[in-house]
Amino acid sequence: MPLRVGIVYTTMKLRRAQVHLDKLKGEISRFREKGYSITRQDDVNSSRHIARIEQAVTPELLPLLVGEFAYSIRSGLDHLAWQLALLTTDKPGRRTCFPIDSECPLSSNKSYREKIADIPPVALSVIELLQPYKTSPMFKTHPLWQLNRLCNIDKHQVMAVSCVEFAVGIYGVTEFKRSDFDHRIEISVPLSEKNNFQLNVKIPDVVFGDPIDITNGTSSFEIRLDELSKIYDFVGFDVIPRFARFFT
User: Which of 12, 27, 123, 205 is 20 to 30 A off residue 182, Cα-Cα?
Assistant: First the structure.
């Protein structure tokens, strides 16, 4: 007989996702503290003092943790779908999973039918209420759509990690010039004001998403740490509790 555990394994997967999320928060916090370097030099010919602020290389662990976080939750939802299917059969179809769709699934959609074929209709109605297409055209802000997108990126590509533009405070000088480059900022002040020149640099946020398109320098999907927390909360406090009644 197949093992029937209800939502137990799904909640275990969610707790594992929390471990990855907590680890990610710690790594990002440490990166923000040392996410840049500052070098200074005098340009005597131009009578300027120049400060260069360079972004450090983002730790390789960050995208790995995001992928592990997303997959823990995504696989937990698929376990939930399997447990729901076990309410109707001892042998759910091999494609049984928790569907996440941005477009309304049609009865003629064979792939969708295979995913939910063995799930009880009353449980399926709950699943459909949670679908991102219900929030169209804003489905890309839906936590389940974002979860699915993260998993697809991590499955096939290297997840991009970037920083929001440096927040740089400049103090103690009456005049300065700023030049922005890739991963670097240069600020120059009159050499006579060198000793009064003060900087306050912060990295306000880290962004994850699609690999950046080299043709236009943009990413079609981006997500921040607080949005990962929203995915976790949505699944943990809104999705999973809706299905507990099916296993009592």
Answer: 27
